[in-house]
Design goal:
- With 226 residues, this protein is mainly α.
- The protein folds into 2 domains: 3-155, no CATH class; 177-226, no CATH class.
- Helix content is 78%, strand content 0%.
- The termini are far apart.
């Protein structure tokens, strides 16, 4: 495939991600600026961390959360990325020096695009899709930081954009799911931790408790079946 065709195909495949990342990246940059961090922090976070929802969670932790809470939250929020990388580890083997970046850049949206690609998709297209997606996020983050620091807008509530996105995803999944018990269990764990620990400390324990409540019975049933 010619270089121009590779770039065009990668751009077309990444267009749906661009629509979401420019907006959400802008929301993240604005939220970071509102917390007192300059544009350079938006650039650094989106270049070196590049973790979408985790970056939103990071902002209050950066502003004064504990290191232990930040570590546990990052582990629980982004644990799914371990499985993303494992599912493509064979596919990335032949990419040489680009392999670490391909694993690093495997966000939810990029993973979804990769899953929809044909079996024989070229490495060039995959690498460019990953790079374009991150570029969209970086552009949105920097733009959000610049807008928040230079325009006299009241940005109160912009941090709710990621919460709203997750609510929409959760409702959509609940409507289509055959088993809604994991969602109910997650809501109960979150509510209990919120009541006991308060709004500043409940997130990481709630995630850990939900993961344990879903994993332990499954492992026990599997062991009993063997």
């Amino acid at each position: 495939m010619a270089e121009q065709s590779v770039r065009r195909r990668a751009f077309l495949l990444s267009l749906p991600v661009m629509c979401g990342y420019l907006f959400l990246g802008t929301a993240f940059g604005a939220m970071l600026a509102q917390a007192g961090f300059g544009v350079q922090w938006a650039l650094l976070c989106s270049t070196l961390v590049y973790a979408g929802s985790l970056q939103f969670v990071m902002v209050p932790l950066m502003a004064g959360g504990s290191l232990a809470a930040a570590f546990l939250t990052a582990l629980m929020v982004n644990a799914r990325h371990l499985f993303y990388g494992l599912s493509f580890i064979e596919r990335f083997k032949g990419m040489g020096r680009l392999r670490p970046y391909m694993i690093f850049s495997l966000t939810d949206e990029t993973y979804s695009v990769f899953c929809g690609m044909p079996e024989g998709e070229s490495d060039g297209v995959m690498v460019r899709v990953a790079a374009y997606d991150q570029l969209y996020w970086i552009i949105g983050s920097v733009a959000g930081g610049l807008l928040a620091s230079r325009l006299p807008f009241d940005l109160t509530g912009i941090d709710f954009s990621m919460t709203a996105l997750f609510i929409v995803i959760c409702v959509e999944r609940a409507m289509n799911a055959a088993d809604r018990m994991p969602m109910v269990l997650g809501a109960v764990c979150a509510g209990a931790c919120l009541l006991v620990l308060g709004p500043d400390n409940f997130l990481a324990p709630a995630l850990a408790l939900t993961a344990a409540a879903l994993t332990i019975p499954h492992v026990a049933r599997k062991g009993a079946g063997q």
